[in-house]
Design brief:
Blueprint (H helix, E strand, L loop, with lengths): L2 E5 L2 E4 L4 E8 L6 E8 L6 E6 L6 E2 L8 E6 L4 E6 L8 E9 L15 E2 L3 E6 L1
Parallel strand pairs: 2-11
Antiparallel strand pairs: 1-3, 3-8, 4-5, 4-9, 5-6, 7-8, 9-10, 9-11
């Protein structure tokens, strides 16, 4: 079993930056590919960033590419999501997710690919 805990959400203004953190425990962190998702009211959950076990591969949708950066520090069992130039449409609950992967360089962008989820952290961007 893997526990996933996000932190760092809050209320910011458009154009501001925010960094989310996600700490995992319970199993060897380096065995897990990680992802950040978000879900706005009335919308489906969507991927915002994915990172491989090694951290060497990342994946972003066009909506956040160039503004968001995912990274991981394996020694701290932590993955980060740096969000810059935030827009009101980025407002959502952000979730961190983990999945065991045999592929050290693989990234996963579907919510169905992930086994373990955090409770979510709210990000609100005012205009």
């Amino acid at each position: 079993q893997v526990q996933v805990v996000e932190s760092g959400g809050g209320l910011v203004q458009a154009g501001d930056s925010l960094r989310l953190s996600c700490v995992t425990s319970g199993r060897t962190f380096t065995l897990y590919a990680m992802g950040w998702f978000r879900q706005a009211p009335g919308k489906e959950r969507e991927i915002v960033a994915a990172i491989s076990r090694s951290g060497g591969s990342t994946n972003y949708p066009d909506s956040v590419k160039g503004r968001f950066t995912i990274s991981r520090v394996n020694a701290k069992n932590t993955v980060y999501l740096q969000m810059n130039s935030l827009k009101p449409e980025d407002t959502a609950v952000y979730y961190c997710a983990a999945r065991a992967s045999l592929r050290i360089g693989g990234t996963y962008t579907s919510s169905e690919d992930y086994e373990y989820w955090g409770q979510g952290t709210q990000v609100t961007v005012s205009s």
